């Protein structure tokens, strides 16, 4: 650790004090702008009824209360399907989709980044282009195809489309390209198979990208990527249910803000864990030959 | 196999080597396809097939009930000659993408780069603050309360308290303001995928390069940026570019949440909201598909341009 510290200080020598001050100022100003709606959502969720409807509205809460959260728990307690079922659905879908997406993407990204074979270029291009095709239009054929296979309103519909998403393979491929060939050649001379090179060299070397992908995937799954294929209440996920509650009226502003805050808790937790891991990995300093 | 006398042994060695090599090559090819197989199966089924069917439907009339009828390029002609809303949507989308795309992309890089200069603990807090708009799929709804023209509107409240206005400004319905408001929110939300991948990419740069650079006489952070950081981030910049193009040409959710659907005088109609209108509300799936193919072509072209610019900046292959 001390060695790392020293390194950082050594790097800082080339920094001017003025430059540092400008940087801190810029980051503070923009940071406030970025955080404002998030903070406002928290403020709204803590406001008692009369403050929500106060005119003119205030940004800050004067008399914070947990009233809205209490009302939310009341509403959750009264749902037809027990809340545990929604939570279980969310956990199952979140874990399988995320783990599956990352494993499949890592496996596919390695040959695209580091192996020569026929069709490599074509497949890579197709993946890139598919990211540019508008989702609302493909949603319809996608629905038809899944309906033909009897997948609508099953767990498959919630999970499989996330596994097929091209973003993971595109991200990991672009990171794996940077792994020095010499590293792989050395492994090959030591008798490593292609699969060993994938799991023992390529994947550990792109850890920051894998952790970043973890954030993207959990977030899109949690925020309801495939919920359009589900209509029975027993298969819905927790955020879907909460958003339904928020949309259903009853003292909207306050409870809706409470829902927005509660729904964000899981992605925020995952974000914090993976980001701190990314910064830890950085301690052994980037990709090296 | 034929070899000449006298050189026989050598050639046999060579032949054996070549054989081993080709066997290794064949094994590589087999392994490559094996590794790609799970992805390719799912990808073809859930992504490629729907895209190809949309492209096909773009040449038909299809109301989702009867079989599609072949129309040739009529849908594409209709876009330009017989659909004023589409032309409005096209111009909105282009204005949008031209402004928010580059600003969003550059701020992704600049903020990732600035944040990366900070000590680890501050860095994680700031990364969180800048990424927070993207974390929840719906937190941008708060902007409607901020800009709203009714009694909930925060900005109008502040302006009124300061005595600057005596009746609220209709930020979300007045065509004069609505596009700029959506752009602001779009830029606010653009520090998402590309931003995080830049943060991760900056961790991946070999730190020894900076030390070597310092020895070679790199004096300030600008030189470091242009001689070391940017050239080592080619792949991440390419990734960010594709994601940014996708985001800035397909603005829809934010526009609908802020300006309503449809928006006043179509001031906030974008190509994607028009696609939703035509396809999901009017059931003209063929025409909606044609519009999306056209949008796809625009994005491909932009991607092609950007790719070449980035290659020049990063000196990548």
Give a structural overview.
The complex is a heterodimer of chains A (289) and B (317). Chain A is mainly α and 289 residues long. Helix content of chain A is 73%, strand content 0%. Chain A folds into 2 domains: 2-65, no CATH class; 81-284, Orthogonal Bundle (MetI-like fold), CATH 1.10.3720. Chain A has helices at residues 2-12, 17-46, 49-52, 67-77, 83-114, 120-130, 135-148, 155-164, 167-176, 181-189, 194-205, 207-222, 238-247, 252-281. Residues 1-10 of chain A have low confidence and may be disordered. Chain B is mainly alpha-helical and 317 residues long. Chain B has 2 domains: 1-57; 63-314, MetI-like (MetI-like fold), CATH 1.10.3720.10. In chain B, a hairpin with a 7-residue loop joins strand 1 and strand 2 (69-70). In chain B, helix 3 runs antiparallel to helix 4 (120-135). Chain B is flat, with a radius of gyration of 27 Å. Mean pLDDT of chain B is 83; it is low at 1-8.
Write the layout of secondary structure elements.
The complex is a heterodimer of chains A (289) and B (317).
Chain A: H1 2-12, H2 17-46, H3 49-52, H4 67-77, H5 83-114, H6 120-130, H7 135-148, H8 155-164, H9 167-176, H10 181-189, H11 194-205, H12 207-222, H13 238-247, H14 252-281
Helix pairs in contact in A: 2-14, 4-14, 5-8, 5-9, 5-12, 9-12, 10-11, 12-14, 13-14
Chain B: H1 8-57, E1 60-61, E2 69-70, H2 74-81, H3 84-116, H4 120-135, H5 142-147, H6 154-161, H7 175-189, H8 193-204, H9 207-215, H10 221-229, H11 234-249, H12 253-259, H13 271-281, H14 285-314
Antiparallel strand pairs in B: 1-2
């Amino acid at each position: 650790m001390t060695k790392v510290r020293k390194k950082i200080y050594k790097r800082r020598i080339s920094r001017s004090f003025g430059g540092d001050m400008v940087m801190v100022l810029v980051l503070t100003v923009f940071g406030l702008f970025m955080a404002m709606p998030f903070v406002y959502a928290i403020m709204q969720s803590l406001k008692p009824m009369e403050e929500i409807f106060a005119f003119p509205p205030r940004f800050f809460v004067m008399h914070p209360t947990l009233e809205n959260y209490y009302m939310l728990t009341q509403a959750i307690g009264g749902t037809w399907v027990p809340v545990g079922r929604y939570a279980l659905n969310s956990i199952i879908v979140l874990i399988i989709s995320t783990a599956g997406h990352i494993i499949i993407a890592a496996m596919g990204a390695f040959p695209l980044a580091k192996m020569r074979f026929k069709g490599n270029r074509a497949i890579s291009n197709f993946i890139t282009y598919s990211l540019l095709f508008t989702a609302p239009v493909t949603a319809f054929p996608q629905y038809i195809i899944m309906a033909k296979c009897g997948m609508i309103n099953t767990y498959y519909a919630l999970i499989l489309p996330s596994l097929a998403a091209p973003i993971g393979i595109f991200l990991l491929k672009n990171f794996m390209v940077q792994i020095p060939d010499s590293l792989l050649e050395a492994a090959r001379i030591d008798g490593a198979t292609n699969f060993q090179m994938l799991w023992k060299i390529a994947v550990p070397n792109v850890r920051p990208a894998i952790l970043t992908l973890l954030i993207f995937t959990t977030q899109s799954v949690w925020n309801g990527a495939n919920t359009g294929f589900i209509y029975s209440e027993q298969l819905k996920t927790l955020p879907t249910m909460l958003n339904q509650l928020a949309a259903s009226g009853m003292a909207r502003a306050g409870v809706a803000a409470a829902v927005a805050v509660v729904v964000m808790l899981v992605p925020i937790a995952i974000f914090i864990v993976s980001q701190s891991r990314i910064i830890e990995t950085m301690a052994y300093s980037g990709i090296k030959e | 196999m034929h070899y000449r006398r006298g050189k026989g042994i050598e050639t046999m060695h060579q032949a054996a080597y070549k054989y081993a090599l080709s066997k290794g090559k064949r094994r590589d090819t087999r392994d490559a396809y094996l590794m790609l197989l799970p992805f390719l199966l799912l990808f073809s089924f859930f992504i490629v097939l729907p895209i190809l069917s949309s492209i096909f439907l773009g040449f038909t009339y299809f109301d989702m009930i009867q079989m599609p009828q072949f129309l040739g390029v009529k849908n594409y002609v209709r876009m330009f000659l017989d659909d004023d809303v589409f032309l409005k949507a096209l111009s909105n989308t282009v204005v949008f993408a031209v402004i928010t795309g580059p600003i969003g992309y550059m701020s992704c890089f600049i903020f990732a780069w600035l944040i990366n200069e900070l000590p680890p603990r501050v860095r994680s807090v700031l990364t969180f603050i800048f990424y927070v708009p993207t974390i929840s799929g719906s937190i941008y709804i708060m902007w409607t309360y901020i800009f709203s023209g009714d009694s909930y509107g925060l900005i109008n409240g502040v302006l009124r308290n300061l005595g600057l206005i005596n009746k609220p400004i209709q930020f979300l319905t007045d065509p004069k303001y609505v596009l700029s408001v959506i752009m602001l929110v779009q830029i606010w939300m653009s520090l998402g995928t590309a931003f995080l991948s830049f943060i991760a990419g900056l961790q991946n740069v070999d730190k020894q390069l900076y030390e070597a650079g310092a020895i070679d006489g790199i004096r300030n952070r600008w030189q470091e940026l242009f001689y070391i950081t940017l050239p080592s981030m080619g792949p991440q910049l390419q990734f960010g570019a594709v994601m940014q193009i996708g985001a800035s040409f397909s603005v829809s959710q934010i526009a609908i949440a802020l300006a309503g659907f449809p928006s006043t005088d179509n001031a906030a109609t974008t190509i994607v909201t028009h696609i939703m209108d035509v396809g999901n509300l009017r059931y003209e799936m063929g025409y909606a598909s044609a519009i999306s193919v056209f949008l796809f072509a625009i994005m491909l072209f932009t991607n092609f341009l950007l790719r070449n610019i980035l290659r020049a900046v990063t000196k990548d292959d």
